Amino acid sequence: MKSIQCPRSRRRAIIGLAAAIGIALAAPASAADMARNTAAQLNSDAQKALNGLYARVPGAKAIGAQAKAVLVFPKVTKAGLGIGGQYGEGALIRGGKPVAYYNTAGASYGLQAGAQTYGYAMFFMNDAALKSLDRTEGFEVGVGPSVVVLDEGKAKTMTSTTMKDDVYAFTFQQKGLMAGLGLQGNKITKITPK
To answer: Is the torsion defined by CA of 140, 143, 149, 155 positive or negative?
Structure first.
């Protein structure tokens, strides 16, 4: 049997595509299968992450005081080579206590390579936005209630009279090398931790 020779760049592209397809096929089938953390671990990690955000960004604490609830994903892992994905688990904190658990997941394609971890917190400012979180098909960032991603500078200028959006989000603790960090398109689904 005669082997076919491919140019080096084509072989790399084929290997990258095969690796991405293998990762996608090896992924668990459902959100329930993907739940890895215990409720106690999620509670602890979410509270630590939120307290850390409040210590670094006083504006986030002011927004948190006005929010109906805060959904905190302490660690989201994102990786990709042409085709990418991200996943993390978190807790919904209402009245200072965790009341429910969720995962965040997303897929992307295009010019991307690398891996990173980050966390994010979403501040739900009204009951309608909070109710949309538990839709049967999941909550997709960018579809439904308006979500505004804030940085430390913008948070400093927020007051109770300027807070008019449904949901405010902060990203934090970004580590690793991967171009682009966006929440748009992330799907958030309720889970039952182990």
So the answer is: negative
Neighbours of 85 (CB within 10 A): 17
Tell me what the mean pLDDT of segment 116-143 comes to.
Answer: 81
Q: Crossing angle, helix 58-66 and helix 39-56, to 10 degrees?
A: 120
CA distance 70 to 93: 5
Residue 100: name the closest of 131, 78, 126 by CA. 131
Predicted confidence at residue 98, as pLDDT, reads: 96
Could you give the CA distance from residue 67 to residue 51 in angstroms, rounded to a whole number?
15
Which candidate, 173, 171, 129, places its Cα nearest to that of 150? 171
The answer to whether the Cα torsion of 149, 154, 155, 160 is positive or negative is negative
Q: Residue 64 has what DSSP assignment? A: H
Q: What angle do CA 152, 157, 158 make, to 5 degrees?
A: 95
Distance CA 119, CA 51 (A): 13
Number of Cβ within 10 Å of residue 147's Cβ equals 22
Q: Is residue 53 within a helix (H) or strand (E), and if so which, with residue range? A: helix 39-56
Using pLDDT thresholds of 50, 70 and 90, give the confidence band for residue 132.
confident
Calpha distance 138→189 (Å, rounded): 5
CA distances to 58, 122, 129, 168, 169 from 155, rounded to whole Å, are 8, 13, 20, 10, 10
Q: Which residues lie across from 50 on neighbouring strands?
A: none
